[in-house]
């Protein structure tokens, strides 16, 4: 096809070694959208009956631990990596923790 110069990845080439060093992206510090995360967590923990019909016995067996790992990862990523408590975003952090605890204790 017709085109200009080929696309290049963002980064630089190390002068000493000649190895390409990709440019690191800054991590997002935007507070999480609690409603969207609640929907994602709910969908993961309580899948539809149609989806469950396709599951194997192993999938049923490991689903609860997968859900706990999923929620733990969300806490790590959305609260601790974004440093919500350190930045004064306690309300948002506690809302997300409350959503997760509610799903664990009450369910759907």
Summarize the SSE layout with pairings:
Blueprint: E1 11-13, E2 20-22, H1 34-45, H2 49-53, H3 57-80, H4 90-105
Antiparallel strand pairs: 1-2
Overview of the molecule:
With 108 residues, the chain is mainly alpha-helical. It has four helices and two strands; from the N terminus they run ββαααα. It has a two-stranded antiparallel sheet. β1 and β2 form a beta hairpin. α1 packs parallel to α4 and α3 runs antiparallel to α4. The longest helix has 24 residues. The radius of gyration is 21 Å and the shape is extended. It starts with 10 loop residues before the first strand and ends with a helix.
Number of helices: 4
Largest sheet: 2 strands, antiparallel
**Percentage beta strand:** 5-15%
Number of strands: 2
Strands of the biggest beta sheet: in what spatial order? 1-2
Q: What would you call the structural class? A: mainly alpha
Distance between the termini: 53 Å
User: What overall geometry do the principal axes of the alpha carbons give?
Assistant: extended
Order of helices and strands: EEHHHH
pLDDT under 50 segments (min length 5)? none
Oligomer type: single chain
What value does the Rg take, in angstroms?
A: 21 Å
Helix content: 40-55%
């Amino acid at each position: 096809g017709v085109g200009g110069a080929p696309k290049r990845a963002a980064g630089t080439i190390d002068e000493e070694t000649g190895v390409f060093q990709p440019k690191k992206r800054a991590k997002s510090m935007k507070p999480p959208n609690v409603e969207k995360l609640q929907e994602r967590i709910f969908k993961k923990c309580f899948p539809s009956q149609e989806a469950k019909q396709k599951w194997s016995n192993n999938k049923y067996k490991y689903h609860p631990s997968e859900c706990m790992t999923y929620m733990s990862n969300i806490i790590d990523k959305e609260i601790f990596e974004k440093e919500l408590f350190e930045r004064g975003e306690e309300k948002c952090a506690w809302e997300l923790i409350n959503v997760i605890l509610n799903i664990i204790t009450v369910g759907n």
